[in-house]
Design brief:
- The longest helix is centred in the middle third of the chain and has 29 residues.
- The protein is built from twelve helices and 16 strands.
- Helix content is 35%, strand content 14%.
- The radius of gyration is 22 Å and the shape is globular.
- A hairpin with a 2-residue loop joins strand 14 and strand 15.
- It folds into two domains: 53 residues, no CATH class; 305 residues, Zn-dependent exopeptidases (Aminopeptidase, 3-Layer(aba) Sandwich).
- The chain is an alpha/beta fold and 455 residues long.
- The N terminus is likely disordered.
- Bound molecules: zinc ion.
Length: 455
């Protein structure tokens, strides 16, 4: 085990906002009427502000269904499943998970009204649905149907194969390849190897898959190449993107907004459809590399900072919860108790990654993330992927790609054994990442599911 380095000095606030693929995880909460407030929130990170501006200024206001307020490329939600949530939670535990995990700071107040014996959920502009709490006289119910299984619900496995009968989906973040520059997950120093997050995550996924299979898991890859999962392209999304814009709409803005709709929203929605309707795994492992502001991708800034964190779905903001689809997705996670599995999974995997990498925890200063759980590594944050995927999601953000040591290790590529980097013998960064994730999953399921006793 490598010893974690001392916690680094507090980073600049803008860097915090940028981190965790910052421009990737746009809070889908900003509406035309709140543009000024939203720009204030993001002040200090011009790249992030501009990206958020593209997506932010109009969201939620262009639904064809005037009565529905839905986020970009989303459908108006069905609320039928709420009927299955009657008596799932006692009042006190509902308030606890709502206030501490999903909607801190009373973020849900305008759309969720808690009475003595129920929660009333706004399911339309003038429509509320009442969900009664469990009580002394009404036994608790399991909540909405789910396809994924908790570790405790899996059949017993042999100690040597603790992932047996477990279906894991690996989601290599982003696209890479020819799309890397469009998705702003690309930089290059001189004539050295370009750094492309989507290529790195796919390489880690390819190393991780056989490690998990060797421990008995069934593994599905959400992508196996740098080709998009979505059949859409910026051109086919141009009309939707244009309709989402207002004000000074010029050709450049439409192009950038169409690209964002493609690689950010449509692509993740397509992966979510694969997870929820076809694969139905027990968990999804989203692989990412982190980054801080690197400036010009052709002349990027390398920095000394390097860190690790993981993200469990939660910490919704009041404006996000104004959207019917977002509110429905949050409540479905809450009532399905997804966080009860996702949080310890994230904690265990982050700890295992910290052990193999020696990385210190990252610290958020922005209000869209909240540190949660026992250890220092896991934050609750509402990302499109960890919200849309209905299974528990482990969302990993180790290694700052534009930190000097990570850049050096990326340049070294994959290799067997150890090599010296800055005087320290280390495995390839791809092997180290894959090994940390595999060790974390083995540890989690070895301790949380029944293990067959052998003579
Ligand atoms: Zn990423």
């Amino acid at each position: 085990m490598r010893r974690p380095q001392p916690t680094e000095a507090k980073h600049r606030p803008f860097a915090k906002i940028k981190a965790a693929c910052g421009i990737a995880k746009i809070r889908p909460a900003f509406q035309r009427s709140s543009t000024a407030a939203f720009i204030g929130l993001c002040a200090g990170n011009s790249m992030l502000v501009s990206c958020l501006f593209w997506i932010g200024v109009n969201l939620g206001l262009h639904s064809d269904l005037a009565a529905q307020k839905v986020s970009p490329l989303a459908k108006a939600p069905s609320w039928d499943w709420l009927a299955s949530c009657a008596h799932t939670f006692k009042r006190s535990e509902f308030l606890q998970i709502l206030n501490e995990h999903y909607a801190p700071g009373d973020a849900g107040a305008a759309h969720l009204r808690v009475t003595d014996d129920s929660v009333r959920v706004r399911t339309g502009p003038d429509q509320w649905t009442e969900v009664p709490f469990a009580s002394e006289t009404t036994p608790q119910t399991p909540g909405p149907a789910r396809f994924w299984r908790k570790a405790s619900e899996l059949p017993a496995a042999p100690a040597s194969r603790p992932l047996e009968n477990l279906h894991i989906a690996i989601d290599p973040g982003h696209l890479g390849g020819d799309w890397a520059q469009m998705e702003a997950r690309y930089f290059q120093i001189g004539k050295t190897q370009p750094v492309m997050e989507g290529d790195l995550t796919l390489q880690v996924a390819r190393k991780l898959k056989p490690l998990l299979e060797a421990k008995g898991a069934r593994v599905s890859m959400l992508r196996s190449s740098d080709e998009p999962v979505t059949p859409e392209r910026p051109k086919s999304l141009r009309a939707a993107a244009t309709a989402d814009l207002s004000g000074n709409v010029n050709a450049d803005r439409i192009r950038l907004h169409s690209e964002l709709f493609f690689y950010r929203i449509s692509e993740i929605r397509a992966r979510a459809m694969a997870v929820n309707e076809r694969l139905k795994p027990d968990l999804v492992v989203c692989l990412h590399f982190n980054a801080e502001e690197w400036g010009n991708p052709e002349d990027p800034q390398l920095i000394p900072r390097n860190h690790l964190h993981a993200l469990v779905n939660g910490c919704y903001g009041a404006r996000e919860l104004e959207w019917d689809d977002v509110r429905a997705e949050m409540l479905e996670h809450l009532f399905a108790r997804t966080a009860e599995e996702a949080l310890p999974l994230n904690e265990t995997l982050a700890e295992a990654l910290a052990e193999v990498s020696g990385l210190p925890p990252f610290t958020y200063f922005s209000s869209n993330a909240k540190r949660i759980g026992e250890g220092p590594y896991v934050y609750a944050r509402n990302l499109l992927a960890n919200r849309l995927y209905k299974a528990p999601v482990v969302f990993l953000e180790p290694y700052v790609m534009n930190s000097s040591p990570v850049w050096k290790r990326v340049q070294m590529g994959d290799y067997r054994g150890l090599k010296s980097v800055d005087g320290e013998s280390v495995p390839s960064i791809l092997s180290e990442y894959a090994s940390g994730v595999a060790q974390g999953l083995v540890r989690y399921y070895s301790t949380r599911r029944e293990i067959k006793q052998t003579r």
